[in-house]
Design goal:
137 residues; alpha+beta; OB fold (Dihydrolipoamide Acetyltransferase, E2P); 5-stranded mixed β-barrel; two-stranded antiparallel sheet; 2 helices; 8 strands
C-alpha cells in the first residue's frame, strides 16, 4: 500500500497560509473559497446602505447585524424592520419564525422600490434577505 505524504510547512519559515511544497492549484484551492466569501458580502450599517444604496444595488450582497423590530406577516414569509445603532431598514424574509427583539445577522441584496406620488419619488430602500447567520457578539 503506498504511503500518503503530506507536506508540513513551518509557520516561522513561510508566509502564513503559503506552503511552497504544495502545488499551486492546491494552494489556490485552499484560499479561493475564503476569498469568494469575503468578496461577496461585507458587514455594513443601516445608515451606510440608506446613504449610499446605489453602491450596492443588484451587484453586491451586504451583511447587517441588529435586532428585529416591527414585523408584518406575508403569505410566503414576512417583512420586518432590522434595527442597528445607526437606524432602521425593512427586510423581506421568507422566514416567519422571527420574534420582535431577537438579535439577527443577515446577508441580503439591497433593493429599491420606486413609488411616485404626484411627481414626487417616495421610494424606499429595503433588503431582500438571502441568508440568516447565527448572530455573533
Amino acid at each position: 500500500m503506498p504511503k500518503l505524504s503530506i507536506p508540513v510547512c513551518l509557520p516561522a519559515l513561510s508566509i502564513p497560509g503559503f506552503c511552497p511544497l504544495l502545488p499551486a492549484q492546491l494552494r489556490l484551492g485552499l484560499w479561493l473559497p475564503l476569498l469568494l466569501l469575503t468578496a461577496c458580502s461585507r458587514l455594513t450599517t443601516v445608515q451606510n446602505v440608506r446613504e449610499h444604496p446605489q453602491r450596492n444595488w443588484l451587484t453586491q450582497t451586504v451583511q447587517l447585524r441588529g435586532t428585529v423590530g416591527n414585523r408584518a406577516p406575508l403569505l410566503q414569509g414576512q417583512v420586518y424592520e432590522l434595527q442597528d445603532e445607526t437606524g432602521k431598514i425593512w427586510v423581506l424574509s421568507p422566514n416567519r419564525d422571527l420574534k420582535t427583539g431577537m438579535p439577527i445577522l443577515i446577508q441580503g441584496q439591497v433593493r429599491y422600490e420606486a413609488i411616485e406620488v404626484e411627481g414626487q419619488n417616495l421610494g424606499e430602500v429595503y433588503i431582500e434577505e438571502q441568508q440568516q447567520m447565527p448572530p455573533s457578539p
